[in-house]
Amino acid sequence: MLKILFYDTKSYDKDSFEEKRLQYPELEIDYLKSELTPATARLSKGYEAVCAFVNCEIGTATVRLLHENGVRLILLRCAGFNHVDIEKANALGIKVMRVPGYSPEAVAEHAMALALAANRRIHKAYVRVRENDFSLGGMLGFNFYRKTAGIVGTGKIGAAMARLCHGFGMEVLGFDKYQNPELDFVKYVTMDELLSRSDLVSLHCPLTDETYHLISRETIRKMKDGVILVNTSRGGLVKTEDLIEGIRARKFFAVGLDVYEEEKRNVFEDRSDEILESSVTARLLSFPNVVITSHQGFFTQEALNAISETTLENAMAFMNGESTGNEVK
Ligand code: NAI
Fold first, then answer.
1. Of these residues, 21, 35, 234, 261, which one is catalytic?
2. 309 alpha carbon to ligand 1 midpoint, in Å?
3. What pLDDT is attached to residue 250?
4. String of b and e for 226-264 (b: at least 16 CB within 10 Å)?
5. Ligand 1 centroid from CA 7, angstroms
6. Average pLDDT, whole number, for the chain?
7. Is the CB of residue 156 below 6 angstroms from any atom belonging to ligand 1?
8. Which one from 166, 295, 309, 327 is the annotated catalytic residue?
9. What is the DSSP secondary structure assignment for residue 84, as one 8-state letter?
């Protein structure tokens, strides 16, 4: 029997995991609404495994507390692991397992949806038509057909986005440390060339020390005037203050963000009755050419199914002393 404490549970998580768990009577899961943080890590006493999502804080302090409580497995039900102190976990003998590619198309299709919505001002049109305002002022977009898309990070999601852009009849440029051999239609170029030639720049690399604030005043300056920027990867890739400066300077035709630096407290929560403490998100939302969603790129039926399936397989493999290749070291 493996006892798992499931943090940050939403109703859709529980539905999806409980349906799959029927196949695994060896796994026992208790669900908590709270995120995994140093404060809530204490609740893990008596559990051998914890299950956490992207917005949990699994730094050194949390990992230490989990270790003290006897936890030996962190099941990440997400692909990214920049929020986990992997070195500390491994040093303390805690295994970290993730779901590497649950549905790259889910995120890529959302990236394209943001690019199209921001370009054609769908967010404004929706509100306008509801008010019986059928005018078109301020909603002029541009065709993607025969334009250039720049994909930064051509792994699983970047590759899916590259294929969508190719399908739209765009020239596709790629920048990555490693070239993806499946993408024979992508022209790999330097980051500078990608920035200077792309009409649409879409970010799909992980957040690392190297990619932190990849998009800043310096790189924005190198972009084409009238570019569309889409970020569905991690907020820290874009220096928000510099992005706002660029939007004010009319550098961007449109911006679509599924992730942003300040999202931590907002993500997956209904805060509509609260007075928000920071103004950065509000400032971004005040621009007519910016569309923001709340980290929902992953949120499709197919992705949720794949997440629960792989996470439970990871738990079973851990119990049986097997390796799945989903271990993070
Ligand atoms: P992946 O590991 O398949 O691909 C990442 C690619 O980025 C690799 O090809 C890697 O070589 C490249 N890369 C690494 N460092 C780079 C650098 N400095 N410059 C350029 N390229 C670099 O990962 P996958 O599955 O495609 O996911 C990408 C990111 O998408 C994740 O790290 C995560 O942050 C984000 N994500 C967002 C979701 C959402 O709901 N919005 C859901 C899932 C993932």
1. 234
2. 21
3. 98
4. ebbbbbbbbbbbbbbebbbebbeeebbbbbbbbbbbbbe
5. 24
6. 96
7. yes
8. 295
9. B
Rounded CA gap, 68 and 209, in Å? 29
Q: Which residue has the tokens 């794949």?
A: 306
Average pLDDT, integer, range 28-52: 97
pTM equals 0.91
CA of 25 to the centre of ligand 1 (A): 34
- Is 121 catalytic? The answer is no
The stretch 307-323 carries a mean pLDDT of 97
Give the three-class secondary structure for 273: coil
Sheet containing strand 49-52, strands side by side: 27-31, 2-6, 49-52, 73-76, 95-97
Write down the pLDDT at residue 228.
Answer: 99
Residue nearest to atom 32 of ligand 1 (CA): 206
Average pLDDT of 36-54? Answer: 97
What are the residues facing 231 on neighbouring strands? 203, 257
Cα 228–chain centre separation: 18
Q: Is 250 a catalytic residue?
A: no
Q: Could you tell which of 189, 201, 233 is best to mutate to test the pocket of ligand 1, judged by most ligand atoms within 8 Å of the CB?
A: 233
Q: What percentage of residues in the chain have a pLDDT greater than 70?
A: 100
Q: What is the pLDDT of residues 201-251, one digit of tens each?
A: 999 999 999 999 999 999 999 999 999 999 999 999 999 999 999 999 999
CB 266: neighbour CB atoms within 10 A? 18
Q: For ligand 1, is residue 259 a contact (CB within 6 Å)?
A: yes
Q: Does residue 152 line the site of ligand 1, with CB under 6 A?
A: yes
